[in-house]
Amino acid sequence: MSEITLPGAETVVKTAGTYARDLLERVLSTFLQAFIAGIVVTQPLDLSMWHAAAVGGGGAVLALGKGLVARWRDVTNSASLARGV
């Protein structure tokens, strides 16, 4: 029977930290992009800034979900669905 080798605790913590930073960056950038897009859409339609914030928050929640799915799909340090990232 072959022996199973596991990574050390330090490697696991570094990997989790890298993934968390990547995911946080993606979620925050998605929120900001969606918020700015929401402002562009809400101004001509005379909607409130809170509607723009809700649009941005919805986009960020979807980005968080996609990042978690990417993590479950493949064991990587990235929140990307692209292979090799």
Structure description:
The protein is mainly α and 85 residues long. The chain has a domain at 29-74. It has 2 helices and no strands. The longest helix is centred in the N-terminal third of the chain and has 37 residues, at 9-45. The chain is elongated, with a radius of gyration of 18 Å. The relative contact order is 0.15.
Estimated radius of gyration: 18 Å
Shape: elongated
Helix content: over 70%
Quaternary structure of the protein: single chain
Average pLDDT level: 75
SS class: mainly alpha
H and E string: HH
State the distance separating the first and last CA atoms.
33 Å
Can you give keywords for this protein?
mainly alpha, 0% strand, 85 residues
Question: What's the short version?
Answer:
The chain has 85 residues and is an all-alpha fold.
Secondary-structure blueprint:
Elements: H1 9-45, H2 49-73
Helix pairs in contact: 1-2
